[in-house]
Amino acid sequence: MKHTNKKVLTTGLKYLAGALPLVMIGPSVLFSAFNNQDKSLFIPILLLGVVASGTAIFLMFKGILTIIKALFD
After folding, report:
1. Contact status, residue 63 vs residue 12, Cβ threshold 8 Å
2. What confidence score (pLDDT) does residue 45 get?
């Protein structure tokens, strides 16, 4: 019977912990950008929100894959 690789599991949990604030920040920034479309900083704020949301999705994906790797390899 194999045991869980705790070092890899910890790494996966760190990825998910890093994604947690971005999951909240990304949509909030996007909402703020779309509410202020007539302002001059619309495009930079929109890009910041898209990057934050994309990074959150990437970190969640990588974290879940890392946790599965720790449990089943």
Report:
1. yes
2. 95
| Distance from C-alpha of 46 to C-alpha of 35, rounded to nearest angstrom | 11
DSSP code at position 39: S
Torsion of Cα atoms, 18 then 24 then 25 then 27, to 10°: 130
Q: Helix (H, G, I), strand (E, B), or coil: what is residue 32?
A: helix
Q: How many Å apart are CA 20 and CA 61, to the nearest integer? A: 12
Six-digit token pair at 53?
């949301």
Residues contacting 52, CB < 8 A, separation 6+: 22, 25, 26, 29
Whole-number average pLDDT of the chain: 94
Give the N- to C-terminal CA distance of the chain in Å, as an integer: 11
The string of pLDDT tens digits covering residues 30-47 is 999 999 999 999 999 999
